[in-house]
Amino acid sequence: MKILIAEDDMISRHLLETTLIRWGYEVVVTCDGTAAWEVLHSTDAPPLAILDWMMPGLDGVEVCRRVRRAAMPMPPYLILLTAKGRREDIITGLRSGANDYVTKPFNRE
Questions:
Q1: DSSP string, 77-90
Q2: What are the percentages of helix, strand and coil residues in the chain, rounded to 5?
Q3: Residue 49: is it exposed, middle or buried by C-beta count within 10 angstroms (0-12/13-18/19+)?
Q4: How would you classify residue 57: left for phi > 0, otherwise alpha for psi between -120 and 50, otherwise beta?
Q5: What tens digit of pLDDT does each residue of 87-98 get?
Q6: pTM of the model
Q7: What is d(CA 57, CA 62) in angstroms, rounded to the nearest whole number?
Q8: With contact defined as beta carbons under 8 Å apart, do 83 and 59 qualify?
Q9: In what side-by-side order are the strands of the sheet with 26-30?
Q10: In which band, very low, low, confident or very high, does the pLDDT at 79 lie, cut at 50, 70 and 90?
Q11: With 0-12 CB in 10 A as exposed, 13-18 as middle and 19+ as buried, what is 23?
């Protein structure tokens, strides 16, 4: 299965990418939300995306909103990965269309 990682922090991006590759996934990596939106809006979009909330271009919340507004036959499963852990942030993230919400630092398991 193909997974999109949209993360501007090099260390987090590397940790996610190496872990997912080790687990046998095909990984597509972007460093900003605009590129993530382009990947998710393509005809060969991954079925799962891990999106950082705060990144250049579009943020992860806006990417979630755009994906949910788009007419996609098989919309991807969206995970927001962020340092924002307040209750209000979690509510905002899930209301934006994220299927799941994970706070940093994250446990690889």
A1: EEEEEES--SHHHH
A2: 35, 25, 40
A3: buried
A4: left
A5: 999 999 999 999
A6: 0.95
A7: 10
A8: no
A9: 26-30, 2-6, 48-52, 77-82, 100-103
A10: very high
A11: exposed
